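Same chain as my last thread, 320 residues:
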Amino acid sequence: MLQQTQVNTAVDYYERFFERFPTVELLASAEPDQVMKSWEGLGYYSRARNLHKAARLVVQEGTGIPDTAQELMRLPGIGRYTAGAIASIAFGRRTAVLDGNVIRVLTRLFHVTDNVSSNSVRERLWNMADGLLPETRVDRFNQALMELGALVCRPRPECSECPVSDFCEARKLGIQTELPVKPPRRAVPHVEVTAGIIWRDKRHCLITLRPPHGLLGGLWEFPGGKREGDEPLDKCLIREIREELAVEVEPVKRFCIVNHAYSHFRITLHVFHCHFEGGTIQCRGVDDFRWVTVKDLDRYAFPAADRKIIDRLRNEGGYP
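reply #2:
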């Protein structure tokens, strides 16, 4: 959970997740929908899918959770940093860690002025982290290094509170806030998207399951898709539903507009109430579908943007 989420946000999710899946065996035996529902709201859902796959692999192999960084990196979703953190903190292995906080500490301490997105610079930082490791209590050292970056050596550092400020080359030069050097931020793309609350009758609407890979994989949503050029929004929705599900719908009423930001782009989601006009649903661009009541929607895991639709739908009584 901490790969892409701050501690204060992750704590409640962790406690609920651990209460539901207290052992790797229980996690491995869970259905994907159960795992995604427990993760709902945390974002970066590939983490939940990989965690589930890793649990199943560990149980299948029957040898327990690996205790070295090299073996941990065989598991889905575990890269070099996560492997180092688990191996050192959980198993006491003498293995370095390098996350964003540690990168910030090292570039300032040792005056690294090259772009940290470069592979060669990143490897140099790994070597620095490895060279600093003590012979014992590596778990404490790694946690201290990460906490130093999280609590003191922040983007706007609290140098007066820093226990290693006397050794900091960046502080001596007065360039703490200029490091680490990162590539310039790109303009954030904006995408217009449509979604339909498709009613079969006055009680049941249609939801679809996204494929288990890519953005928001494994989550349910109200079907729709991206607008092409200046395409009228209602025509866009009709086309997307036809392409993904092979059925016809009639948008009858605008319901709401949802603005939402992801890590690398933002969307404006135009939502319509629709009538189901007929046809046999085929899962062309989705993995599954359900006809559900508004009350049923809480059983399924949805992206944050769709949750906003559900909240408003519930407040306004469902069928228009």
